[in-house]
Design goal:
This protein is an alpha+beta fold. 18% of the residues lie in helices and 29% in strands. The protein has a four-stranded antiparallel beta sheet, with no helix packed on it.
Length: 80
Amino acid sequence: MRLDGFAETTTPKGEVLRYENPGLAVWLTYSGRDKGRAPWFDLRRGRVTVKNPDREILEKMRKVAEALGAQVQGDESESY
């Protein structure tokens, strides 16, 4: 994990979209990075948010939650 504090992407029209948050970190050893996918872990208001996690990302989320004494919960309040 690397705490970057921002994420950027370029749209098909060439516009750069940038999101900034001091609690934004990227998982560097994720297997999907070679396909251009970067899983961002976004810490806001005491919660870490990850968009569209696959099984590998969910496992990393469980490890992070365990280290923090927390739990992994989905948008519909389901537990993982």
